[in-house]
Amino acid sequence: MTTTIDFLSHLNPSQRQAVEHYCGPLLVVAGAGSGKTRALTYRIANLILKHRVDPENILAVTFTNKAAREMKERIQKLFAEQLAMKEYGQRLDLLTEYQQMQLRSQVYKTTIKNLWCGTFHSLFSRILRFDIEKYADEKGRKWNRNFSIFDESDVQTVIKDIVNKQLNLDDKKFDARSVRYAISNAKNQGFSPQDLEREQPNYRGRVISQVYSCYQDRLAENNALDFDDLILIPTRLFQQNEQVLGYWHRKFCHILVDEYQDTNRTQYDLIRLLVTNGEDRKSEWEWRNRSVFVVGDADQSIYSFRMADFTILLEFQNDFGDGLPDEDTRSMVKLEENYRSCENILQAANELIENNTQRIDKVLKPTRGAGEQIYCHKADNELEEADFVINQIQTLKHQNPELDWGSFAILYRTNAQSRPFEELLVRNQIPYTVVGGMKFYDRKEIKDVIAYLRAIANPSDTVSLLRVINTPRRGIGRTTIDALVNASQQLGTTLWEILSDETSVNTLAGRATKGVNNFAAMINRWQEQIATIPVTEMLQGILEDSGYVQDLMNQGTDEATDRVQNVQELYNAALQFQEENEDVTLQAFLQSTALSSDLDNLKEGQTAVSLMTLHSSKGLEFPVVFLVGLEQGLFPGYRSLSDPASLEEERRLCYVGITRAQERLYLSFARERRLYGSREPAMRSQFLDELPEELLAQQRKSYQTYTKSASATRGQQQTKQNWHVGDRVLHKTFGIGEITHVFGEGNKVSVAIKFSSLGQKIVDPRVAQLQKV
Ligand code: ATP
Ligand code: MG
Question: Which of 261, 263, 276, 300 is catalytic?
Answer without folding.
Answer: 300
